[in-house]
Design brief:
Layout: E1 19-27, H1 36-49, E2 52-61, H2 72-82, E3 90-93, H3 96-99, H4 105-117, E4 121-124, H5 135-168, E5 181-186, E6 192-196, E7 208-213, H6 216-230, H7 236-245, H8 258-266, E8 274-276, E9 279-280, E10 288-289, E11 296-298, H9 308-321, H10 327-341, H11 346-352, H12 358-365, H13 368-374, H14 383-409, E12 414-416, E13 423-425, E14 429-436, E15 439-440, E16 446-451, E17 460-466, E18 473-480, E19 488-491, H15 496-500, E20 503-504, H16 508-514, H17 519-522
Parallel strand pairs: 1-2, 1-3, 3-4, 14-17
Antiparallel strand pairs: 5-6, 5-7, 8-11, 9-10, 12-13, 13-14, 15-16, 16-19, 17-18, 18-20
Length: 523
């Protein structure tokens, strides 16, 4: 390898020292026409013809090209270039789509410009134009980038249409079965092959999954929940307390909450309906809750475990209890609650079962403290902050146990230190899970503070950002210790490309890192 090149990248073989080159290869799935190996073979042939020597390879196998998240190969390549550590003068990529199918063509151009600014050119080996900066090259490249993004949009639409068709045929499209139900695997002829346990997935492309009634004792609990709600007039919190007092656990082996009770009382799968597209997260964008008019619904495709009349009665009660109250009605209900307990907090409001949720008060009146003042309550301290901290401490334990359970379901090893809560995965790396509560500045902006366990020095810190109500997860940041040596960092809603490359909307990437792969699959 030479420190300086004496010939250009387009000079014929044998005209001087070879130009050091790096190659970048990517594929989304194992079924693509061009695997990373095939891409590399074509790139090597291009390098030979253009008097180049490949000195480094960056690879992203099984990674979507919609954005840079999860693409460690491309991120390492860009970091190498930006930090001045590159020992190559050109980057060789099979074609523009392998560089990425970014939905914003400017993002694709931005990463290429970073390389160009450092004096490193990107060559698209299979394209029918030279990436030489000429007007023709620039125009063709822009069109190709737009076409690469459009391909993903068209593919997304086709996949969605296929999923909708399977829903209409009565097949389940992902997600746990839920309490009282089980996932049944069937073959292409409709013959049942057995139930799938938590973490299990179908192994053949032609197999399908349907929902079937679960154990009799679970079905009895579901029916009891409906009858307590409809016939007994109980509220969510009251039903949850009854079940918890009887030491009855959910399908995730957790205590019942108002939220889990609501899920059972409002989900149509218990009357045999197959519902899809209640939420969507297309093309790696933010997850959104869709309007019921956009839901895909197949009626009566599963065996029901709740009579339709009982389900409809529960929906009527839910609607009556959640109809839009006036400001005066909401304040009157809160005043009654204040008189009963002598003070107010978000937890008291949420668990009362007789008032709107604290988030509804916050949304309607701007803040809970303002609502407290309107009903005459002057807290000596911010009870809401205390209650939220208590809730987040419980949530932290639940999340750690859930992550460990999912890693073990993948056949991997995850061990939690009971003193530090640091999780050791496969004896290969350690992870710390921290929850970043949502805070609002005086200007109304959202902020999150992430604290690192600097003394314990985990390899990865999994930072969980909470939504404004501090009850639901917004997203995740997977922050490697090598890149973050400070004790704290502060995040805003948008943090730029540097920080947001570590941002994910699920923990699937962590589970991908944790999963054990048989040697025969690597060979």
């Amino acid at each position: 390898m030479t420190d300086a090149t004496k010939t250009g990248p387009n000079d014929p073989p044998g005209s001087g020292d070879k130009t050091p080159a790096a190659i970048y290869v990517r594929m989304s799935t194992e079924h693509q026409k061009y695997s990373t190996e095939n891409q590399a073979d074509a790139i090597r042939a291009y390098a030979t013809c253009h008097n180049m020597e490949i000195v480094e390879t960056f690879s992203d196998a099984g990674k979507s090209g919609l954005n840079i998240q999860g693409r460690d190969g491309l991120k390492n390549l860009i970091n190498c270039v930006e930090n001045g550590e590159a020992n190559f003068k050109v980057i060789l990529v099979y074609d523009i789509s392998r560089w990425g199918r970014f939905q914003d063509a400017d993002e694709s151009a931005y990463y290429e410009y970073i390389c160009k600014r450092a004096g490193i050119l990107v060559h698209y080996c299979a394209e029918q134009f030279d990436n030489d900066g000429s007007p023709v090259s620039t125009i063709v490249k822009s069109v190709k980038r737009a076409m690469a993004g459009e391909y993903s949009r068209e593919l997304s639409a086709k996949v969605f249409a296929g999923q909708c068709r399977l829903i209409e045929l009565g097949y389940r499209q992902g997600g746990p079965a839920g309490y009282g139900l089980r996932r049944m695997l069937i073959d292409e002829s409709g013959k049942q092959k057995g139930t799938l346990t938590r973490g299990q997935h179908k192994s053949f492309q032609t197999d399908r999954v349907i929902l079937v009634p679960g154990p009799e004792e679970e079905r009895a609990v579901v029916l009891r929940i409906y009858r307590l709600f409809v016939e007994g007039g109980k509220y969510y919190s009251e039903i949850a307390k009854i079940l918890n007092d009887e030491r009855n656990k959910t399908d995730l082996d957790r205590n019942w909450t108002s939220s889990t009770i609501h899920q059972i009382l409002s989900n149509e799968k218990y009357i045999g309906n197959n519902i899809f597209n209640r939420t969507s997260c297309k093309l790696k964008k933010r997850q959104v809750n869709n309007d019921p008019s956009q839901w895909i619904r197949a009626i009566g495709v599963f065996e029901p475990i709740v009579p339709i009349s009982l389900f409809e009665a529960s929906q009527t009660i839910i609607q009556e209890r959640t109809h839009k109250l006036s400001d005066e009605e909401m304040l009157d209900q809160l005043s009654i609650l204040y008189e009963k307990y002598g003070y107010l907090s978000g937890i008291i409001i949420d668990e009362s079962g007789h008032t709107p949720l604290s988030s509804a008060y916050r949304s309607r009146f701007g803040s809970l403290l303002r609502v407290y003042q309107m009903v005459g309550f002057q807290p000596d301290r911010d009870y809401r902050y205390i209650e939220i901290n208590r809730y987040l401490r419980k949530l932290h334990t639940i999340i750690i146990d859930d992550v460990i359970g999912k890693i073990i379901d993948l056949g991997a090893i995850a061990i939690k230190d009971c003193h530090t809560d640091i999780v050791t995965i496969n004896d290969e790396f350690t992870a710390s899970i921290v929850i970043a509560r949502h805070m609002t500045t005086s200007a109304g902006s959202s902020r999150w503070k992430i604290r690192f366990d600097t003394g314990l020095r985990p390899d990865i810190t999994i930072a969980i950002r909470m939504k404004p109500d501090n009850k639901e997860t917004l997203d995740y940041y997977l922050l490697p210790h090598l890149d973050f040596s400070k004790s704290t960092i502060r995040l805003a809603e948008e943090n730029g490309a540097i920080l947001d490359t570590y941002r994910f909307y699920t923990l699937e990437y962590l589970f991908y890192l944790s999963e054990r792969v048989p040697l025969k699959d690597i060979a």
